Amino acid sequence: MSLESLKEKILSDAEKEAKALLEAAKKKAASIEAEAEADADKNREREKKEVAERIRALEEGSAATVRLETKKFNLKERRRVIDTIYDRALESLFRIPEKESTELLLSLLKVYAREGDVVSLSEDYPYPAAAEKAVAKAGYKLSSKRAKIKGGFYLLGKKCDRDVSYAALLKADREENQAELAAKIFKT
Q1: 123 φ, ψ (degrees, to nearest 5)
Q2: Helical H runs in the chain?
Q3: Does residue 82 register a pLDDT over 80?
Q4: DSSP-assigned letters across all residues of 103-125
Q5: Where is mean pLDDT largest: 4-8, 24-28, 142-146?
């Protein structure tokens, strides 16, 4: 097999693996979203009663104050639901099996790592021995020091460092997708 066809095979395999991981992540996100919708449905009646009580209490005030208080309450509850979704997503990343965790590590290295980067695993990384092998296999050096981040790893680069922690990745996802997620959950 020629070097070029070997290179193409590796790239093809990496793309397939990345697509599979992305698909698994989408399924997990759909599951988390379904859970959040169920939680939202459970809380809806309670919220309606609380809003009705607040409205009665505020009827003596102006209608604008009532609307503002209701919107603030609804926004707070919506934020709480979104927080719960992302908190559960973070928790679920710590519970993925070793093989999937290693595959995720390798996929993230392919996306974020640069030549010469040193990988510093998080203090709470669940499978450090498997990660050490994967990092070496990917051609990177593993730092003996652990990063004080939530899951994932930190890349120490020649020009700049990159936070590839689970928390940072979910924060970026939240910033990008929060409005769309809220629209789906709350049907706004």
Answers
A1: -60, -30
A2: 3-58, 63-95, 98-112, 128-137, 166-186
A3: yes
A4: HHHHHHHHHH--TT-EEEEBTT-
A5: 142-146
